[in-house]
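Task: complex structure prediction.
Instruction: return structure tokens for all chains below.
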Amino acid sequence: MPTSTVKRTDLIFKKDIDYSAVMHKIMKMGKDEFIEELIDSGLRGRGGAGFPTGLKWKLVKAEQSPEKYIICNADEGEPGTFKDREILDNAAEKVIWGMTLAAYITGAKEGFIYIRAEYKYMQTKLRIAIDRMEQNIKALGIKFKLDLVFGAGAYICGEETALIHSMEGYRGEPTNKPPFPVTQGYLNKPTVVNNVETFVNAIIIAEIGAKEYKKLGTKASQGTKLFSVSGDCCKEGIFELEMGMTVQQFVDEFGDGDTKAVQVGGASGFCVPRKEFPNTIIGFEGVPTGGSMKVFNSSRSMYNTLENYLIFFEEESCGQCTPCRIGTQQLLMGIHAVKRKEKPKSYLDELLKLAQTMKFASKCGLGRSVGNAFGSIVTNFREEIIY
Amino acid sequence: MTNCEEFISQLANKYGRKRESLLAIIHEVINQYYYLSEESMTAIARELNMPAAEVYGTATFYTFFDTKPQGKYVIRVCQTIVCDMKRKEDIVDAIYELLRIKPGETTSDGKFSLYYTNCLGMCHEGPAMLINDEQYAKLTPESVKDILVNYMKK
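Output:
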């Protein structure tokens, strides 16, 4: 049995944080000092886009507005991602206190957890955890009201501007940025929108300090990350790992011995074929990921995989901008036509160009990222798509 | 006022007569009536002081808000890649054997509707499905029938 080269960590689900003590520590330290600490920790958004968290909080704090909001993005819809569900199910307190910390730092008085309808079964549990927090902060003299808002089955609402529209009671359609939510977010007020895991990391940094936290991971991808591992694996589930490992290290640990490809980052991420395993780093310096790791062995058809992703995107495109609405349809029809020999093989190159155009011309991250999976699967598994 | 209008008026009192309350109100209406009827959309529009077309336009954006009659229990089987690899179609076949409905259909007694849905976040325990708000994972054709038989008795 080869020794494992993947570095396990255990911060996210570790139970014993004395939240009141941590909050006291931060109140003594000062708001600006903690923001510097958070920036120094190198924490980047854990939803996948990777915006520096400390900077986001700093921008909202700097806004002169009596009303500010803290929103936790729990609209986890990326295929193959289930770490936010696990966190909310087993470590909801850390999320809630991470949000309370954000509220204290930025001066927000109100917050919301926007959670996908698929996770409604957790409702009671979360409300109890929120009540407990609200009892505890009274003694600290912090005013922060937290509520739950449910989505209704729309992947696009994970995009922050779409999420905000949905919370405001509108269709969950993204808008152009700027303005960014940090200046004009929920109800046009400065708003922090962070992923579930980001809030957890923030409270952990508040507890252990940036110096300890920075010991984990690599320079570009600091700290730990939860990985949602599924597919043809020897073990599936949630694993907390240090960032910066190669796909090869990952496959040695989790694969079933016959891995031909790993889709890193969900349907909107990249497909890494076997020959690239040793040279591909999982993290912001290589393939970034919100945590979704789907493993395929050699019995799987990458045509089916690609078709499944395209059906997903075609259904979930909000339809607002043409490159994404028409592009997703054409890519799906295109691979069907090539498979049925109604179009020549070279038609795939036309489709690759279309995917590239979508990357530049689409309004939001959905349309822009369809080309990631499409390009990496078609380039690496061309034969499987054609024959 | 009809029962439905009365119910929606109470919801508007509870959540506040503002646009931000729209989704929360629709969620509750669907819990009660299983779908969003024309009557309820008009009532919501009146309570929130907005055009009924806007209520319709917003509701139809979201897959979980149905504007056509649905079964009391809506079954949503995950169709995304990992559940697909774990043979979600066997689950759909088992449901057909028991209830005689295919994805998109409702049983004649109005008790069950079946749909495919996108990733439920249960990939490591797939195939997975949702019945209303409840999640069910690690399904087999046998276990899905057991689960449904329990719902049939309800």
